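User:
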Amino acid sequence: MEVKVCDALCGAGKTMSCINMMNADTENKYIFITPYLDEVERIRKGCSERHFISPERKASNGYSKLRDLPQLLRDGENIASTHALFSCYNEEIKDLIRGSNYILVLDEVIDLFQPVDIDIGDVEFLTRNKIAKRDGDNVVWSDDKYTGEAFNEVMRISQSKNMVDYDGSFYFWSLPIDVFKCFKEVYVLTYLFEYQLLRYFFDVNHVEYKLIGTRLSNGRYEFCDMSEMRRQRDLRNKIHIVYNEKYNEIGNKCYSLSSKWFMRSQKEPNQPNLRVLKSNIYNVFRQMKAGADDKLWTTLNKYRGYLKGKGYSNGFITFNKRATNDYSDKHYLAYCVNVYMMPWMKNYLVRLGAPDVNQDMYALSVLIQWLFRSAVRKGEDVWIYIPSKRMRYLLHEWIQNLARGEDLREIKFDVKKATKLNEAGYALTKASKTKKEGAK
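Assistant: Predicted structure:
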């Protein structure tokens, strides 16, 4: 298996380069995997002569896309479908792919790990009654004749994913590495790949990869060597970060707005931190004079209800949203979360042999993906409120690096530098406010 990762900023032409490659390469068969159905349609239209087909739900397959897929593979069709379906590939499907030399294109990295909704006592019941068995850290379904209803969903998912015991405290699903290894070649289209979960997953499973770029040549996008890609892009006058001392104060500590911060804030009497943050979001949007349909905001999903407010609630999208253009008309943004990889994910990867996870660059990669759902992907100005001092610093430094064509350079959160950056930003904000008041 050969893996090529096209690591390029959103809007740099990754998908168009892939469409052009698949149209020109009539010798090979492709499976294109993307997060959303509208992107599936984009591939089908962009590669009309390659006749990409999407699995369908119909009576003949019990209204199951997963059951429709094997026949498409037997027929040698080019296939476009979603991450959700890809994560359910069973042994039959993987065997058919191996025998047909398919090439995989993965548009954006896929969710590798997901908690399992099962009690520890239920797992003990399954293993004690030999319905499942332990294989190292994995719990493997072993009773093909099981007819009960209580664990039907667990049995179904176990046909495509590994159920992992995390130190006896809880269980999670892990996508097996062989779902990638059954392809002749793999292309991954993403950004800041070396700081994402999939990169660490490849490392611990000894999967080698090569970074490639994309370029516009004679009016046509194409893949190229990384050294041939022009990475420089100046967004310093397009992305306007809000520097307001009052509204940013809530995020001054390194772990403010992290998952643990929200958990503690929720338990406090009258929840003062959450009330202040909600008020800040409302006031920032009001001062931006953002239109009712021109706002985009996010936080950890679990705490959305505590922060939603008048005039902006409907503009919420999840903080790790990727690969959709549905929000490219939004200019006023609020990113109210301080991103860290879930500790159990990080610890599991490290235990498997991954180098220590770079939390700052991981957080930056998540923020940039979210930011580029907005109008900035079209080259338009956006204004963004980021109360977390850490996240605000990471974005500022990345914007500077991008202007020099060094966007993949590692950034580490530096408290002293972030404090100086804030002071300079607040001074400019006050000076601008004074100037406007004087002009009146």
